[in-house]
């Protein structure tokens, strides 16, 4: 397993390099201009100067080389530097700089991680926690009213777009009832009971919207997988052994059914980081998803390139993790 | 036949119908009458063979015997206790005494459990053995089915089909049952191993005094292993007799047709034999014909057969037949 | 009616001002401001747009600001230099600002003329990519005559010498903080760009780029009673409907910038009674640009250039005029703009003194007139109803940027033109491409490979000289100037060029106004630009906010130090 993992990791490096280059080329070909958002009152000559100062229009191989050097060499060195290990001359290093903020892209990304993890990550966790029992019970009591209701709710959660559920929640809970803020305060510093309550309050709506969405997907997977297993002979065996229904469902069926579900869950983790663009916009959570969208709108290529590439790394990584988990959970799979 | 006169299992009008749901509201629109009124006894220590075409309800009947399916109707006595009406707790207590060996040895073993824990699991639930004793028991069971003791920590997928079936048998034996339903235990195995497994089953039966319900569609295998044989057609028993009587003088047209299809080893006899070829398909168990279930295909059917359902009646001593014309 | 409303709002605000003027600094708690575009940077010289400039206007002050009425008010200067008070030289080539001597930076160090000189040099550095460079156009040198006097020398006569350091686009930054950040190094000074030291009413407390800025009152602000608010939170992101809702419906915010919400939705939000819409009209005009050269792709390199020859039918003034006459501008306003727009017949609609009334006939649609005009000019309806003459059909390719209101307007105009027998094909292009200067793209508004294009433009400040200069011959975009130029219609008239040149030499406001109107009228009567809508700035303000007047000439937050909390 270790060998397999290492081999896969090694293989991932050239894959990712190719991916990064492809992203770069696509972004380079994409129309758009970082000065496109400037007011029209700024004359074209000034725009040309600005573009030049940003380094727009450099030949692609040079721009790519600079970015790769920034991503793989300068940024790691910078962060080593931050923890006290200095290699080389820090002042020589050009970090990857965003066009729009003129600040280092990595600082921006780092600033976004807390709210992304809190809101999107937590909604994923809640989604899973809600989905698993619902999926299990729905399958166990297939076609019961519970199952029908579960199916209906997941259809709704699945097909009604989050901007609608989000807006609906705002109208009900912020406008009408005034229970929760409609705008997420990213500067809130949780340091007391009161601020904790505030944090919880501002997280309720976005987390609920996203959790519903996640739960509907995962509960469907869970249900299908449970149904697959419930009719297997080994379940009958377990019953014939005189095992209690609890043991039959929870140890035999659930454990086997979880294997594919856990994989799906692992594969879904990168989507946490790519954020929930729409939900973030609605509640102004301003996490990684919103950062990406702003980057795209403003043609902030260094930002978009870096973020997309980080997502690519996460996707490759979690694919590997999913495979490894699968191997650990399912004794039938052996990697060597 | 003194050895076999105590009744262990007695089925009376056992029915298992599976509901058919259709439409968005999933309303019940009918039912598959997989098992539709079985009446028979299994005596202590004997092997009752249960034969019939694919889909006639053998497995369903076998599972119903262990109440792995809820009965739609009927009574099922196990040593005089009606297990069809037992509450879950009492049922669970009686479960160790009746076990099942499945058709597909791969599917019946939980892929995520080691052989050891598969065999030991029921011991945790139903006995108070210490860990050490349990380990011993597992190993001795593996011995009993002719498997290497060191396999305890392996997973089912690491074994061959025959080995898996042995594991399945060991598992079934773990709680010292009295009654085992063998649902085509050899159907999925290579011909070369079939004999080994059958011999093993017979060995064990002798050693432990087990009672078998042996389900198969292979008439010659049943002839080899069973004491008595029941023939099923479309959810019902059409003939039930001592194997000697049944094979020598089959009374029911269906049994006759089945037997005529079994090749005889002697080519001369085989050439002269008359083959009864049944016309048409087996009707759907969801919609069985009126009257005799077999009337749509019976070569000798008369008008009465399409109206009146024949009773299972005792023609000679111990030979039961459900046919208006049989005598 | 709308004007009346604005007026009432303004007086209401003024009256509250009277009652709360004695407030002391920081007594009003937190001010919550919502911008649907998030702030990226707090150095306006490197900014990506209005939101950044406005966000930094709370921190940085120029020498003078524009008041909501368009007049200039000294900020860091003691008075506005003019020829009369000797601040502007007779030959119009220099301006001398006297600075207040009681101003200190938020870090406590004194503000001097050196900072002003530095700020100019910072923006003038050719490698810095300063986006206020046009404010500093023709600046030859900036010198400190003494600690509190700055003289700006121009290379040409500048009848309107208030480009540098007037308005939020060109404020004064601190030399001490930025001296290592000149030119190519400008982007590297993240700390300074994210937290400039200023002389304005607030200082940055925390800045999360593309997300939120929190400010606190500047302890060293020059007016000891201001700002009334102790802290400001400027939250970015979401969309205009969401920010507006947070003021008008949930009341979580006090002020929402740039309201762009459909009129009906807005009415619903207003019903909650938590806030008001405030609007003001600056110089933004949504207009149609008419292509006078031939955009036929078969012309290759000469496509849409003067060399490529005149447009097959738009070179006929009757067609252009008919197109304008056929448009019902009232409907366009009603459907797409609501309080954000009013009908206009001028490309230069404001300030008041520059607004011509000579073209007001366009305010009423005249379909019959348009038809008659086309008939007369020989453009007669063909078999499919589309007018033609000598085999040339009146078939128009009409492009604009992708934006739901614009597409709505496009559809309406297409219908109106259909009525007079003009066929229209609509096209919309992603804003980033349309307005972006990508040389390789055929879809930019400068290349204008279409017959008609629509967008909004305006000018900074109150002086239209540079804006009206957009339509001189030398501004025609073409491959020779890398398609840089603002004269989209490719209009070229010696007379117009002469007027423009004359304006560059004229200092008297009356004469300048006459010239600007004349230029505007020329463009209008030639129908090379068809103005549609005078677009206002609309924002939402909470009822608990006092003293807010929407400022169309400067940053909306330029006078936020005067804002107060009222109950
Ligand atoms: N869970 C179920 N739900 C609905 N119908 C079922 C179910 N199980 C079995 N049936 C139907 O009941 C009938 C009898 O099935 P059963 O499995 O008992 O047949 P069988 O005699 O064992 O066949 P085989 O020899 O192929 O194993 C078949 O028509 C089958 O389709
Ligand atoms: S009852 Fe009639 S149909 Fe049924 S088996 Fe006997 S003869 Fe055939
Ligand atoms: Mg079967």
UniProtKB/TrEMBL annotation, chain A:
Membrane-topology annotation of the record: Multi-pass membrane protein
Listed CDD domains: TM_PBP2
Parts of the chain that traverse the membrane: 9-30, 117-140, 152-176, 196-216, 258-278, 309-329
Entry similarity comment: Belongs to the binding-protein-dependent transport system permease family.
Protein name, as recorded: Putative peptide ABC transporter permease protein
Keyword Transmembrane helix: yes
ABC transmembrane type-1 domain location: 113-322
Main location: membrane
Pfam family name, one: BPD_transp_1_N
GO cellular component: plasma membrane
Family annotation (PANTHER family): DIPEPTIDE TRANSPORT SYSTEM PERMEASE PROTEIN DPPB-RELATED (PTHR43163:SF6)
Localization annotation: Cell membrane
Keywords assigned: Cell membrane, Membrane, Transmembrane, Transmembrane helix, Transport
InterPro entries: BPD_transp_1_N, MetI-like, MetI-like_sf
Any Gene Ontology biological process: transmembrane transport
Native organism: Maritalea myrionectae
Keyword Transmembrane helix appears in the UniProt entry: yes
Signal peptide: none
UniProtKB/TrEMBL annotation, chain B:
Single GO MF descriptor: ATP hydrolysis activity
GO cellular component terms attached to this protein's record: plasma membrane
Membrane topology, from the record: Peripheral membrane protein
Predominant location: membrane
InterPro entries per the UniProt record, alphabetical: AAA+_ATPase, ABC_transp_ATP-bind, ABC_transporter-like_ATP-bd, ABC_transporter-like_CS, Oligopep_ABC_C, P-loop_NTPase
Pfam families, per database record: ABC_tran, oligo_HPY
Compartment list: Cell inner membrane
Domain of life assignment: Bacteria
CDD domains from the UniProt entry: ABC_NikE_OppD_transporters
Domain ABC transporter: start-end pairs: 9-259
GO biological process: peptide transport; transmembrane transport
Keywords: ATP-binding, Nucleotide-binding, Transport
PROSITE patterns with a match to the protein in the record: ABC_TRANSPORTER_1, ABC_TRANSPORTER_2
Family: Belongs to the ABC transporter superfamily.
Protein's name in the database: Putative ABC transporter ATP-binding protein
Organism: Maritalea myrionectae
TrEMBL record, chain C:
GO biological process: peptide transport
Transmembrane regions listed in the UniProt entry: none
InterPro entries named in the record: Peptide/Ni-bd (IPR030678), SBP_5 (IPR039424), SBP_5_dom (IPR000914)
Annotated localization: Periplasm
Domain Solute-binding protein family: 72-472
Short name of any one Pfam family annotated for the protein: SBP_bac_5
CDD domains according to UniProt: PBP2_thermophilic_Hb8_like
Gene3D superfamilies for the chain: Dipeptide-binding Protein, Domain 3, Periplasmic binding protein-like II
Cellular component, GO annotation: ATP-binding cassette (ABC) transporter complex; outer membrane-bounded periplasmic space
Signal peptide bounds: 1-23
Keywords: Signal, Transport
Top-level taxonomic group: Bacteria
GO MF assignments: peptide transmembrane transporter activity
Similarity section: Belongs to the bacterial solute-binding protein 5 family.
Name used for this protein in its record: Solute-binding protein family 5 domain-containing protein
Lineage of source species: Bacteria, Pseudomonadati, Pseudomonadota, Alphaproteobacteria, Hyphomicrobiales
């Amino acid at each position: 397993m270790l060998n397999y993992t290492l081999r896969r990791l090694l293989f991932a490096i050239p894959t990712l390099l190719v991916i990064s280059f492809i992203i770069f080329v696509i972004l380079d070909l994409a129309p758009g201009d970082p000065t496109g958002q400037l007011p029209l009152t700024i004359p074209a000559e000034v725009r040309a100067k600005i573009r030049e100062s940003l380094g727009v229009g450099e030949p692609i191989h040079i721009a790519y080389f600079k970015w790769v050097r920034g991503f793989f060499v300068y940024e790691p060195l910078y962060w080593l530097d931050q923890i006290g290990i200095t290699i080389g001359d820090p002042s020589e290093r050009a970090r990857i700089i965003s066009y729009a903020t003129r600040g280092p892209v990595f600082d921006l990304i780092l600033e976004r991680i807390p709210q992304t993890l809190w809101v999107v990550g937590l909604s994923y966790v809640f989604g899973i926690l809600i989905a698993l029992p619902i999926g299990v019970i729905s399958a166990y009591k297939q076609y019961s009213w519970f199952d029908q209701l579960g199916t209906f709710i997941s259809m709704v959660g699945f097909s009604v777009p989050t901007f609608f559920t989000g807006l609906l929640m705002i109208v009900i809970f912020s406008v009408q009832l005034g229970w929760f803020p409609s705008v997420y305060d990213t500067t809130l510093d949780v340091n007391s009971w009161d601020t904790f309550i505030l944090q919880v309050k501002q997280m309720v709506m976005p987390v609920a919207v996203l959790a519903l969405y996640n739960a509907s997907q995962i509960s469907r997977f869970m249900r299908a997988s449970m149904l697959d297993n419930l009719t297997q002979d080994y379940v009958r065996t377990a019953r014939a052994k005189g095992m209690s229904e609890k043991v039959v469902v929870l140890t035999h069926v659930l454990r086997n059914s979880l294997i594919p579900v856990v994989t799906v869950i692992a594969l879904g983790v990168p989507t946490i980081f790519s954020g929930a663009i729409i939900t973030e916009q609605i509640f102004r959570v301003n996490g990684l998803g919103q950062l990406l969208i702003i980057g795209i709108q403003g043609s902030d290529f260094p930002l978009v390139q870096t973020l997309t590439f980080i997502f690519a790394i996460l996707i490759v990584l979690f694919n590997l993790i999913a495979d490894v988990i699968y191997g650990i959970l399912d004794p039938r799979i052996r990697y060597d | 036949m003194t050895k076999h006169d105590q009744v262990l299992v007695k089925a009376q009008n056992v029915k298992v119908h599976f509901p058919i749901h259709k439409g968005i509201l999933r309303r019940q629109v009918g039912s598959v009458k997989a098992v539709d009124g079985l009446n028979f006894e299994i005596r202590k220590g004997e092997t009752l063979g249960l034969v019939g075409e694919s889909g006639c309800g053998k497995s369903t009947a076998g599972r119903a015997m262990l109440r792995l399916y809820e009965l739609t109707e009927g009574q099922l006595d196990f040593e005089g206790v009606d297990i069809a009406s037992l509450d879950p707790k009492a049922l669970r207590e009686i479960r160790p005494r009746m076990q099942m060996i499945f058709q597909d040895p791969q599917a019946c073993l939980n892929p995520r459990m080691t052989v050891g824990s598969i065999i030991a699991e029921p011991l945790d639930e139903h006995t108070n053995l210490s860990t050490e004793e349990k380990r011993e028991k597992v190993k001795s069971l593996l011995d009993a089915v002719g498997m290497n003791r060191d396999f305890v920590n392996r997973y089912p997928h690491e074994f061959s089909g025959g080995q898996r079936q042995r594991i399945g048998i060991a598992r079934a034996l773990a709680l010292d049952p009295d009654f085992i339903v063998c649902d085509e235990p050899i159907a999925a195995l290579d011909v070369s191993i079939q004999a080994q497994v059958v011999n093993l089953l017979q060995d064990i039966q002798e050693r432990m005094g087990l009672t078998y319900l042996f389900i198969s569609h292979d008439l010659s295998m049943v002839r080899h292993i069973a004491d008595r044989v029941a023939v099923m057609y479309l959810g019902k028993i059409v003939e039930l007799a001592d194997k000697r009587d049944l094979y020598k003088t089959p009374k029911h047209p269906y049994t006759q047709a089945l037997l005529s299809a079994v090749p005889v080893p002697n080519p001369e006899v085989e050439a002269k034999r008359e083959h009864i070829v049944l016309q048409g398909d087996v009707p759907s168990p969801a919609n069985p014909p009126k009257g005799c279930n077999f009337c749509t295909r019976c070569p000798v059917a008369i008008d009465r057969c399409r109206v009146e359902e024949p009773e299972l009646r005792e023609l000679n001593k111990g030979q039961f037949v459900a046919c208006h014309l049989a005598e | 009616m709308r004007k009346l409303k604005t007026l009432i709002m303004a007086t209401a605000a003024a009256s509250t001002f009277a009652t709360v003027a004695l407030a002391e600094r920081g007594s009003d708690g937190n001010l919550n401001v919502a911008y649907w575009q998030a702030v990226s940077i707090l150095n306006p010289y490197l900014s990506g747009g209005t939101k950044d400039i406005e966000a930094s206007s709370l921190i940085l002050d120029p020498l003078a600001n524009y008041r909501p009425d368009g007049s200039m008010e000294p900020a860091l200067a003691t008075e506005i230099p003019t020829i009369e008070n000797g601040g502007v030289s007779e030959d119009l080539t220099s301006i001398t600002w006297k600075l207040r001597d009681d101003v200190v930076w938020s870090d406590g160090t004194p503000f001097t003329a050196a900072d002003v000189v530095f700020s100019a040099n910072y923006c003038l550095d050719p490698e810095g990519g300063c986006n206020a460079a046009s404010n500093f156009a023709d600046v030859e040198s900036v010198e400190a005559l003494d600690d509190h006097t700055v003289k700006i020398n121009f290379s040409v006569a500048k009848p309107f010498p208030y480009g540098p350091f007037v308005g939020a686009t060109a404020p004064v930054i601190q030399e001490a903080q930025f001296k290592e950040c000149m030119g190519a190094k400008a982007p590297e000074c993240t700390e300074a760009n994210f937290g400039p030291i200023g002389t304005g009413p607030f200082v940055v407390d925390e800045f999360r780029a593309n997300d939120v800025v929190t400010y606190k009152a500047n302890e060293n602000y020059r007016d000891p009673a201001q700002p009334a608010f102790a802290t400001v939170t400027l939250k970015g992101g979401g969309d205009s409907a969401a920010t507006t809702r947070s003021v008008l419906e949930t009341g979580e915010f006090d002020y929402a910038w740039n309201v762009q919400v459909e009129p009906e939705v807005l009415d619903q939000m207003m019903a909650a009674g938590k806030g008001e819409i405030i609007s003001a009209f600056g110089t933004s005009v949504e207009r149609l640009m008419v292509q006078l050269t031939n955009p036929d792709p078969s012309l290759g390199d000469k496509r849409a250039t003067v060399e490529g020859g005149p447009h097959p039918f738009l070179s006929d003034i009757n067609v252009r005029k008919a197109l304008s006459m056929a448009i019902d501008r009232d409907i366009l306003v009603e459907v797409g703009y609501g309080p954000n727009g009013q009908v206009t017949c001028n490309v230069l609609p404001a300030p008041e003194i520059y607004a011509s009334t000579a073209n007001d006939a366009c305010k009423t649609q005249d379909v019959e007139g348009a038809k008659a005009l086309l008939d007369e000019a020989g453009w007669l309806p063909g078999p499919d109803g589309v007018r033609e003459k000598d085999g040339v059909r009146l078939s128009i390719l009409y492009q604009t940027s992708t934006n739901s209101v614009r597409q709505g307007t496009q559809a309406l105009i297409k219908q109106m033109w259909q009525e007079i027998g003009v066929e229209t094909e609509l096209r919309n292009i992603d804003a980033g491409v349309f307005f972006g200067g990508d040389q390789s793209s055929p879809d930019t508004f400068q290349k204008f490979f279409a017959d008609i294009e629509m967008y909004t433009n305006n000018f900074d400040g109150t002086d239209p000289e540079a804006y009206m200069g957009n339509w001189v011959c030398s501004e025609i975009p073409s491959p020779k100037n890398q398609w840089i130029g603002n004269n989209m219609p490719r209009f070229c008239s010696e007379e117009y060029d002469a007027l423009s040149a004359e304006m560059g030499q004229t200092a008297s406001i009356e004469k300048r106004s006459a010239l600007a109107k004349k230029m505007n009228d020329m463009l209008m009567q030639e129908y090379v630009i068809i103005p549609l809508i005078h677009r206002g700035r609309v924002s939402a303000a909470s009822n608990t906010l006092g003293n807010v007047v929407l400022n169309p000439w400067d940053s909306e937050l330029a006078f936020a130090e005067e804002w107060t909390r009222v109950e």
